Amino acid sequence: MHDPITSFVVAVFGMPGAALMMAAAILIFAVALIFQSGHFEYVPLMDDLRRRADLLDDFRGDRQKAFAEAFEAIDKRLSGVAHPVLELGWAHYRSQLTPTEDGRLAASVHAADAFDLADTPARTLEWWANIMVAIGLVITFMGIVAALTEATSAMTGGGAAMQGALINLLTIAATKFWTSIAGVLASIILRLAARRRRHLIEVQEAHFFALLDACVRFAPPEKVMLEQLAMLGRIEAVLAGKVAAPGGVA
């Protein structure tokens, strides 16, 4: 007599084709995850990136001047409901913008440095890829436990029953490894899908960042400091010339 858990495992894995059905379920679940993540995470993110890029791509001629003049309306649209990473990235980038004397905007960082990689759709699939391998192994071990339990019970009869039990053990144990194979295949499928999505996200982000950088003037702190030093040098030269000139005022 086995405990309830062992009896349940033996009953489940004792059904013909149980392991194959579980292996198929693992693969179907992996494919369903790809479609689910694509519908609720990947597609909305890509649509948001395209909308942002299209908004900036509408500017023609002097992009920097047009961007600065329409900044208030652009800020409202880029700060709207969107992917959290894009919202935080825009808030960070916006805080780095400063107006210039000629009516444009200057940024102290590149857009790519202000935004974090919005790779949530890829990371979700990669996380599930690891889980699929673990699920396949757990089911395989449970199947082996069921096979060993049944074989142990049959071996108590001795003789021909023992030989049949060993054959049954090897047959069932071999079948249960299909779940491990399915788990590995599911992991490979999920990782391939994640890699492709990450690549497409990076391409779309790079396009958006390039448009955003083209709409502002890049002014890193080092460049601003050098310009200020040059201006101070010119001021000192002018003051020195006034003092040296006849009738100059010190």
What features would you describe in this structure?
By secondary structure, this protein is mainly alpha-helical. The chain has helices at residues 4-13, 18-57, 63-69, 71-78, 84-95, 111-114, 120-155, 160-214, 221-244, and strands spanning 97-99, 105-107, 217-218. The chain has a three-stranded mixed β-sheet. Helix 1 packs across helix 7 (120-155), helix 2 packs antiparallel against helix 7 (120-155) and helix 7 packs antiparallel against helix 8 (160-214). It starts with a helix and ends in a 6-residue tail after the last helix. The model has no long low-confidence stretch (mean pLDDT 81).
Task: Sum up the structure in keywords.
250 residues; mainly alpha; 2 domains; three-stranded mixed β-sheet; 9 helices; 3 strands; 78% helix; rod-shaped
Give the helix/strand layout:
Blueprint (H helix, E strand, L loop, with lengths): L3 H10 L4 H40 L5 H7 L1 H8 L5 H12 L1 E3 L5 E3 L3 H4 L5 H36 L4 H55 L2 E2 L2 H24 L6
Parallel strand pairs: 2-3
Antiparallel strand pairs: 1-2
